Prior knowledge:
473 residues; binds copper (II) ion; binds CU-O-CU linkage; mainly beta; five-stranded mixed sheet; single chain
Amino acid sequence: xxxxxxxxxxISIISVVGLAFVFFPELFIQTSQINLNFSDKxxxxxxxxxxxxxDLNPEDGISEFKLTVQNGQVNFIDDKLTKxxxxxxxxxxxVIKVDRYDLVNITVDNQLDDSTSVHWxxxxxxxxxxxxxxxxxxxxxxxxxSFVVDxxxxxxxxxxxxxxxxxxxxxxxxxxxxxxxDENSKSLNLPDKYGVNDIPLIIQDRAFDANGQFIYINSMDxxxxxxxxxxxxxxxxxxxxxxxxxxxxxxxxxxxxxxLHLSDNSSFYQIASDGGLLESPVEMDNLFLAPxxxxxxxxxxxxxxxxxxxxLLTEDKAxxxxxxxxxxxxxxxxxxxxxxxxxxxxxxxxxxxxxELDAMGMFVAIDGQQFDPLRIDTTVNQFEYQIWEISxxxxxxxxxxxxxxxxxxxxxxLDRNGQAxxxxxxxxxxxxxxxxxxxxxxxxxxxxxxxxxxxxxxxxHEEAGMMAQLQVY
Length: 473
Ligand code: C2O
Ligand code: CU
Ligand code: CU
């Protein structure tokens, strides 16, 4: 009884703080003390393009990579240096690029004073290689996962996944891209020259204190920042020639949804979702991405003239300026057909399972239970098809929705409240945004054995218990 009262007491204190944050964010984020003049383009930095990580094994079909997790510092604001974390550098990490069927050996060297792990988000691998909460890499030690990549060309990513520090380690900079190519993606003549017409955009938001250090404020909606960072700089620019450019976009935020659009409202083409190319390009002028989701889009800059400037925004906040340069001869294409998909055959489904995401103010859980590493919540047979019906059970004060993510699988969205998904969500997905009042049905299959997490990708929700685990036999 006493325990219950203190628990309720604690919940109400947390809720009051949460409410205060929602209505008076300036109490928590010292925006006024930061002198950031967005109209002053003289200090605007050019977009930094993460380097491609060197493959240390010259043999075809075998790749060997080395990642060092380290402390760093970055100049984001004025002349201030922000303490950060990075892979092989100060902030974020290099891009790991592999071909389908490659055997990949990775050495992760954890030089932090804390433990970490490296989870390959979107990759279909056996449990021990997944990099989840059970593959902890203690401080000053190595981890050597090894796996064969067997999935279609896609833009995946990696980030820490240790219990208690996932959210803060990602916030401080630990995230990187993992790109898979295959025969199909190479044959399409898409823009595919890395750093030239194939460019990653890792979008994040952060809050800073008066000394330019990150401040991490956990509210009911997770840690939301007020400065937008693309590939590690606040509001950078990119010079682009008059040609098609493919952007591999990652919502790398802890908690914020992005609604991406161009300043002239012109359209672009989405060609890939989380786990691979779509069947056909989808023309759109607004792209919604929840934390953890990715999209590849192509913007055709050939309709602009030298000197034009187009800005990519989320809502009304500028993320990056594209400064149009020269006319060039562009031989890349946006093909009408991108990838083959088998028809969804529900006769193969052996089980339908419902999953409830619970969110009552600061209290979050899955199916009424908070994460317990000692409890297996779901078991699945390898290769079995299941339908998962995901819905949200939320109180009055609650986050509008939750990005639901499942490890070691790429699934298909069957419907949202009975309606077929939008075309840009009809391909391979590993994260799906489920709004309050919505039931989303997905078709899942696991090709690898082991213990895997499924959770909300608002990292603060994940840490607070909106995570469960499944075992694939
Ligand atoms: Cu992006 Cu469980 O992770
Ligand atoms: Cu994941
Ligand atoms: Cu959530």
